[in-house]
Design goal:
Blueprint (H helix, E strand, L loop, with lengths): L1 H15 L5 E12 L3 E4 L4 E3 L3 E10 L6 E16 L2 E17 L4 E19 L2 E6 L3 E11 L4 E9 L1 E3 L17 E3 L2 E9 L1
Antiparallel strand pairs: 1-4, 1-13, 2-3, 4-5, 5-6, 6-7, 7-8, 7-9, 9-10, 10-13, 11-12
C-alpha cells in the first residue's frame, strides 16, 4: 500500500509541474497473451502478464523537438473462472516512456515500467492462495500512431518478472517445480486520448 501511495505522489508531482506543450492522457488496452501460466483450465488460462489495463498520466513534447516524454500510472488485471472457483492477478504499473515522433504521425518509444503490488489470488476448488509479489522493474518498447490530434493507438511489449518475497516459492496450480520468480512478459495493444 505504501508503494502505491508513493507512485501516486510521483505521478501527481509530474502532472502538477506546469510545462508548455504538456497534456493529460488516458488509455485502455488489452494484452491477449503474456507470461507464465498460473492457472490452466479447459477453456482458458491465467497468464501472469496478460489481461486488461488502463492508465492516466501526462505527455510532454518540447516545442520544436521530435522527442516526447510520457509518465502514466494505471491498473492491470487478469482473471479466470474455473469449476468451483476463480483466480486473478492484479498490479499497478507506473510507466515512464520516451518517444521519437515523426511527421507521419507515428511514434516509437522505449522506457521503464515499475509494477507496484503485483498480487495473485486463487479462491475455490480446495485452493485458497494469496501471494503479494515484490514490486517489479521492467523494460518496455512501443510503436504508436496518432489517428488525429488527440487520439492514438499503441502496441507495447513489456519485459518483466515478478519476484516472490524473500524465502518464498510459488508452485503453479498445474504443477511443476517451485520457482522464486515468474515471467510476466507481455504484448498489448491500447487506444488513448490526449485532453
Amino acid at each position: 500500500m505504501k508503494s502505491s501511495l508513493k507512485a501516486l505522489l510521483v505521478v501527481g508531482s509530474v502532472m502538477g509541474v506546469p510545462a508548455a506543450n504538456a497534456e493529460f492522457i488516458a488509455s485502455i488496452g488489452f494484452a491477449p497473451v503474456g507470461g507464465e501460466d498460473l492457472v490452466e483450465t479447459s477453456e482458458e488460462d491465467l497468464e501472469a502478464g496478460a489481461g486488461v489495463y488502463g492508465d492516466i498520466g501526462v505527455l510532454h513534447q518540447p516545442e520544436g523537438s521530435p522527442l516526447s516524454y510520457q509518465a502514466t500510472f494505471g491498473l492491470k488485471l487478469n482473471f479466470v473462472d474455473f469449476d468451483g472457483g476463480d483466480a486473478d492477478i492484479v498490479s499497478l504499473p507506473l510507466n515512464f516512456m520516451m518517444f521519437y515522433n515523426n511527421a507521419a504521425n507515428y511514434r516509437f518509444g522505449v522506457g521503464a515500467t515499475y509494477e507496484l503490488s503485483p498480487e495473485y489470488t486463487v479462491d475455490g476448488a480446495g485452493i485458497n492462495t494469496n501471494i503479494e509479489f515484490d514490486d517489479s522493474l521492467g523494460f518496455a518498447i512501443e510503436a504508436g500512431y496518432f489517428l488525429n490530434e488527440k487520439a492514438f493507438l499503441g502496441v507495447r511489449y513489456t519485459a518483466i518478472d515478478y519476484d516472490m518475497p524473500a524465502g518464498q516459492m510459488l508452485v503453479s496450480t498445474s504443477g511443476g517445480s517451485p520457482v522464486s520468480s515468474i515471467d510476466a512478459n507481455n504484448l498489448g495493444i491500447h487506444i488513448g486520448i490526449k485532453f
